[in-house]
Write a structure and sequence with these properties.
Length: 498
């Protein structure tokens, strides 16, 4: 575990530098000058030829850099873009210094955030062509060529879905209960055995939220294009609870114009034919059945109780009741697994002919049972990177293409999560939520509402409590704030009320 001291003469860059260092060294510890293994110091200045960056790294290793970044002199940038360019130059300085000391590549270069595609849309909006962006991703943002190509492809595929999206709404409903807690999970998810007694009270509070927010939404009259019920595992609800939820959704929410209605059914053992028929009856168009692995030993290790027979049955039921779009998730990098396991899992998902296949790379989170320090010895970085390449090639050979992607803090091997789709089955919610180009109204446990200013594209967030008991206790206050925000966001943009 190495310690770092970071300094920059340009203001407001401490967090920015930290993000770059922790992307490079997930166990980095920040400390005071004089105590650090490594001291990184940057000095930035600017003139009409661009931003000049000088820097040095001292301590257990030594390195120096000096480069000029002329990107900001391109006439498509305006003065308001200067601060962002400075931040990017700072990260480039830090990464270049670190790479001189340790023989290590970061496939995503200086893009340390969760949503790397945002840089594509930012540059595309400024007037750069896909080819120009791809070149810059390699030379200015220091991405590996295959990541620059992936990001450019995904970004360009998303463009049609983003046109006019700022005028649309998506709804998310969080059901924060699961049969058990997976060892790698950091989502809002409470095991039924310990928290099942909170389920009825939670549902009553959720129905109240549906009622009040539904009434406000009808007044606002913005088109609701996608509804996503996630969690947790929403299909832990029994038949009666699920039917009630579906009825209340249809009764209160303006869902007549939905283009997509997704339900997450992460655990195949929570599904039966009757539940799926019920979802179909209430207009669900997309269902996500997520085995994560098809190795029975790993399923037990991560804390799941389902079998491969449960998975096959769930897929068969989805097809029988004719829910049109099936998504299946898998994780590459689960401890104890090999390249063969990952590729076997993929073959099973391909055999199910899922319309969407999402390839996750393990990201050990602090809030999960398995955090990075516990499992780092088992992370096979080279194997993960190699296997991901083969998986991506295999998916393309079967006609799938990537349509959304995101990264997570501490994602292993510095990789990413990529959503693939068969032709024409893109998940609309996934695109709009990930690119933050539409307002998302979050209801239920742990749901985060994201309020988009349709003029500036600035975003503000209001989270619901994750804990079902707190959610229930605070429901009136939560709903009141949300209604104010819903109307307030339109009063801020009066020309947008229809
Ligand atoms: S099924 Fe999903 S939400 Fe539930 S514990 Fe596992 S990873 Fe978390």
């Amino acid at each position: 575990m190495a310690s770092y001291f970071l300094a920059c003469n340009w203001p407001d860059n401490q967090q920015n530098m930290e993000n770059m260092v922790t992307a490079f060294d997930p166990e980095a510890v920040l400390c005071a000058d004089g105590e650090a293994d490594y001291r990184i110091m940057l000095n930035l200045s600017s003139d009409e030829r661009g931003i000049l960056c000088r820097g040095e790294l001292k301590g257990l290793a030594e390195a120096e850099i000096a480069f000029r970044d002329a990107e900001i002199t391109d006439p498509r940038y305006s003065p308001e873009h200067f601060q962002q360019r400075c931040k990017e130059v700072v990260r480039r300085g830090v990464l270049t210094l670190l790479k001189q000391c340790r023989d290590m590549e970061l496939p995503w270069g200086i893009l340390t955030g969760v949503r790397p595609t945002k840089i594509f849309h930012y540059l595309r909006d400024l007037g750069f062509s896909p080819l120009e962006i791809r070149e810059r991703l390699e030379t200015v943002y220091l991405l590996a060529p295959e990541k620059a190509a992936l990001l450019t492809e995904v970004g360009e595929r998303q463009r049609p879905w983003l046109a006019g999206a700022e005028e649309k709404l998506c709804l998310y409903i969080g059901i924060p209960f699961c049969p058990t807690k997976c060892q790698y999970c950091s989502f809002a998810s409470y095991p039924l055995a310990s928290h099942g007694h909170l389920l009825d009270g939670f549902l009553s509070a959720l129905i109240y939220e549906l009622e009040v927010i539904g009434e406000a939404l009808r007044k606002v009259k913005k088109p609701v294009v996608a509804l996503y019920i996630g969690g947790g595992t929403p299909t832990v609800l029994n038949h009666e609870q699920l039917r009630r939820l579906m009825q209340e959704i249809h009764h209160h929410l303006p869902v007549a114009g939905l283009q997509e209605f997704t339900v997450e059914a992460g655990r195949p053992d929570t599904l039966d034919r009757e539940k799926l028929a019920l979802l179909k009856e209430y207009g669900v168009t997309r269902i996500s059945v997520n085995p994560q692995t098809t190795n029975p030993r790993t399923l037990k290790l991560i804390g799941r109780q389902h079998t491969l027979a449960d998975l096959d049955r769930a897929v068969q039921f989805v097809r029988e009741v004719q829910i049109p779009c099936l998504n299946m998730d898998m994780i590459v990098g689960l401890p104890g697994e090999t390249e063969e396991d990952w590729e076997n899992t993929l073959e099973r998902l391909l055999a199910a002919e899922a319309e969407n296949i999402t390839i996750h790379t393990l990201a050990p989170k602090r809030a999960a049972v398995w955090d990075y320090s516990q499992i780092k010895q088992e992370i096979k970085t080279d194997q993960i990177a190699r296997s991901l390449k083969r998986i991506h090639t295999r998916l393309r050979s079967k006609g799938y293409y990537p349509y959304y992607l995101y990264r997570q803090r501490r994602i292993v091997a510095g990789e990413e999560n990529t959503g693939y789709t068969a032709n024409g089955w893109e998940g609309i919610y996934n695109i709009l939520m990930m690119e933050e180009r539409a307002t998302i109204i979050g209801l239920g446990g742990g749901a985060v509402s994201k309020w988009l200013n349709p003029v500036t594209f600035e975003l503000s967030r209001t989270p619901n409590p994750k804990c079902p008991a707190t959610y229930q206790q605070r429901i009136k206050e939560i709903v009141g704030e949300k209604v104010n925000k819903l109307f307030g966001s339109l009063i801020d943009n009066p020309g947008r009320i229809r």
